Prior knowledge:
Blueprint: H1 18-26, H2 32-50, E1 53-56, H3 58-74, E2 88-92, H4 119-126, E3 130-135, E4 147-148, E5 152-153, E6 155-156, E7 159-163, H5 169-176, E8 182-187, H6 193-199, E9 202-205, H7 224-227, E10 229-234, H8 240-247, E11 274-277, H9 288-303, E12 307-310, H10 319-330, H11 335-342, H12 348-356, H13 364-372, H14 380-401, E13 405-409, H15 430-437, E14 442-449, E15 455-461, H16 467-481
Parallel strand pairs: 2-3, 2-8, 11-12, 11-13
Antiparallel strand pairs: 1-3, 4-5, 6-7, 8-10, 9-10, 9-14, 13-15, 14-15
Amino acid sequence: xxxxxxxxxxxxxxxxxxxxxxxxxxxxxxxxxxxxxxxxxxxxxxxxxxxxxxxxxxxxxxxxxxxxxxxxxxxxxxxxxxxxxxxxxxxxxxxxxxxxxxxxxxxxxxxxxxxxxxxxxxxxxxxxxxxxxxxxxxxxxxxxxxxxxxxxxxxxxxxxxxxxxxxxxxxxxxxxxxxxxxxxxxxxxxxxxxxxxxxxxxxxxxxxxxxxxxxxxxxxxxxxxxxxxxxxxxxxxxxxxxxxxxxxxxxxxxxxxxxxxxxxxxxxxxxxxxxxxxxxxxxxxxxxxxxxxxxxxxxxxxxxxxxxxxxxxxxxxxxxxxxxxxxxxxxxxxxxxxxxxxxxxxxxxxxxxxxxxxxxxxxxxxxxxxxxxxxxxxxxxxxxxxxxxxxxxxxxxxxxxxxxxxxxxxxxxxxxxxxxxxxxxxxxxxxxxxxxxxxxxxxxxxxxxxxxxxxxxxxxxxxxxxxxxxxxxxxxxxxxxxxxxxxxx
Length: 489
């Protein structure tokens, strides 16, 4: 562990989880004003280095903290207070926090602000949480490095020369550095899990169709709306399920979101859990540290009487094809067409030339993704085969996992890459992306640090509806390895 970068152990307000802080607030052991002020000060300290928060509402947050303090003072012991009353949080720019930027990272939308709160933001605020501001994301959300030409690049708090991940990279960096007690992000191919893994925090991608995406912009079209999910990035595993219970469930607007089926992590007994390990991926080269993290997690769970199993499937060799096929056939409007909708002059080959000449408003990942879509009309049969294979794999894995099985898998091929280096290995995203198109719940759990001080972690995966199971296993891993440690950039 890089002890210079890590925070000292103790009970600092910047080192405690949301549930613990909320309990102290309700018991009047802590003031909401004190808590919010401490986190605003932390954001102001670390954000010039991280470029994580790109729009703040500090004055409004302080006013809401004073109102929360008055409500707590007036409450009797029997009052039903909101679960997160007075707890500061942060919001990914895409989710919609009224009056703050919601640009999608596009230069053409640089003046765009959310007209109102998205559903999940509305719900978390009704639960008493106090948003401090919105955080940075990559252009269009379709790359794993948080960079755009509106707000710039977000840096990893453990090493400023490295990526914080994407697309919820601002959230990962800010939560890791203690600037926010928890954050809300979104994930269609790893956008919660990459930042959580690279920055060393807990990140949970819920089961597909569990949380409404209403207010998310750029919006998902067609069946991609069932793959895109909103979920929390937190300091502690125990904070995840209470947040999910607040934000999950239909809102009458998102047609993909159904009734929530959230179980109770405390009702899971490790002696009943089957732990399957998949330390690598046939599509990409996973380094030794990532493989070792899977083995270490499995060994820790086995020592706590979980049953260890191995899992193999030939279908996994075509993981990238399955992800690309499902995404392509699920879209009502392609990513490239969405760019043309906003910018009628957009033409991917011409934009690539402009990039080379330094004259483009777009980033390279955006242009490359739009270029790749030009082949779609010519590979329809292959896409259909890939989507069918994904459905077969979904059924195969759900049968293997059953109601009490989890799969341990690396979140990426290595620890956080240097800025821009992920472009050299564009298919490595599949470590997370595969589980998105399968709609499986996944908890990314920090397990400690490499020798060079970079966080390492593991994905805990379960069948659809098994969010409580991934969280119960993640809690056991947190108990064993210690969990999140605050970064001091």
